[in-house]
Amino acid sequence: MNKKIALMPGDGVGPEIVKQGIKILDAVSAKYNCVFEYKELLMGGIAIEKTGHPLPQETINACKESDAVLLGAVGGWKWDNLPGHLRPEAGLLGIRKALGVFANLRPAILFPQLKSASFLREGVLEDGIDVMIIRELIGGIYFGEKKRVDIEGGQKAWDVMAYSTHEIERITRRAYETARKRSKKLTMVDKANVLESSRLWREVVMGISGEYPDVETNYMYVDNAAMQLIRNPKQFDVIVTENMFGDILSDEASMLTGSLGMLPSASMGEGKIGLYEPIHGSAPDIAGQDKANPIATIMSIAMMLRYSLDMEAAASDIERAVSKVLDKGYRTADIMQEGMDLVGTERMGDLIAENIC
Ligand SMILES: NC(=O)C1=CN([C@@H]2O[C@H](COP(=O)(O)OP(=O)(O)OC[C@H]3O[C@@H](n4cnc5c(N)ncnc54)[C@H](O)[C@@H]3O)[C@@H](O)[C@H]2O)C=CC1
Ligand SMILES: CC(C)CC(=O)C(=O)O
Ligand SMILES: [Mg+2]
Fold this sequence. Notes:
Elements: E1 2-10, H1 14-32, E2 35-40, H2 45-51, H3 57-64, E3 68-73, H4 88-99, E4 103-109, E5 130-136, E6 146-151, E7 154-159, H5 165-180, E8 185-190, H6 196-209, E9 216-221, H7 222-231, E10 238-241, H8 243-254, E11 266-268, E12 274-276, H9 295-307, H10 312-327, E13 330-331, E14 341-342, H11 345-354
Parallel strand pairs: 1-2, 1-3, 3-12, 5-10, 8-9, 8-10, 13-14
Antiparallel strand pairs: 4-5, 4-11, 6-7, 11-12
Helix pairs in contact: 1-9, 1-11, 5-6, 7-8, 9-10, 10-11
Pathway: Amino-acid biosynthesis; L-leucine biosynthesis; L-leucine from 3-methyl-2-oxobutanoate: step 3/4
Cofactor: Mn(2+); Mg(2+)
Subunit structure: Homodimer.
């Protein structure tokens, strides 16, 4: 069984963490006697350097021909002054759109070994954390019209947040289906007291909620949700929300788990092909220093095996291997706790790969 995996290491810590991901896939390939055919592709700042564009057509084509796509992260100070459509981040938004991956699943799960690595009081984390944030990924304000014009006394700029009924319906159904397989509670997060797009979201979600009577539906404004995530994260099971709110809330939720370096993600469309990436960015402040936590990327590979490659047992192997390595006391700097063994990116990747057995 050969599976084609497109790799986009990207920039900053991206290549370092994707390298650890490949170690994990190689360990899975050895155990299950399957072949992963890797194809490394340019996207982000590295693509700008080599081709003048953040998302070459060849990258889009090769991703579409693969079974799954693994992405590191993109961006960096070097490209911060380029026009928006030529920045590394435009490549990232472009590949998500080109693959049609509208549903971005971002599970925030606390490994019990990391309770004291979290910044929250232990009491809040008593019975663990398991929140699934489902973020709409290819619509909303990141994709709406952007413009800047000269006006008297300065300039004016805008970014439009727009959603169609169809865009909301498909992510809502995905969220309900996910909630049905979990604790059957869906919280829709919006700003419907102010935004017209949020009011449309609410109407659509309310309409669809009747098809899922077994799932309890709640509605919450995003400012309150940001607060509730810290005050009482246990109240959440599945959160569904638009693109930018989901982006922000998932970085916040990562702190419940100890670090931004712990949160994986899977982005899915209508088909099986998925895009898998840690939720964090290129972390230029620690790039090239063997400091990045590769667990978010490695857990994203578990999601890839589960959702795109039909390898549930291998996905569980990876999750168990991460847990075993944490049990043995190994920590990268971002999740370091007293009395534990500090390891770098490479060593953490090696340890997890060795524990896949
Ligand atoms: N998916 C992507 O490719 C994303 C790209 N970006 C881009 O990344 C660049 C840096 O953005 P920032 O706002 O600094 O966000 P960031 O997520 O790269 O870093 C935020 C902070 O978290 C730390 N951090 C991130 N990942 C870590 C890991 N695996 N292990 C340990 N520490 C980790 C960083 O060192 C930094 O202090 C920007 O160019 C931004 O546009 C940001 C978010 C997502
Ligand atoms: C370019 C940004 C939208 C990337 C990001 O922050 C994310 O997807 O989490
Ligand atoms: Mg983000």
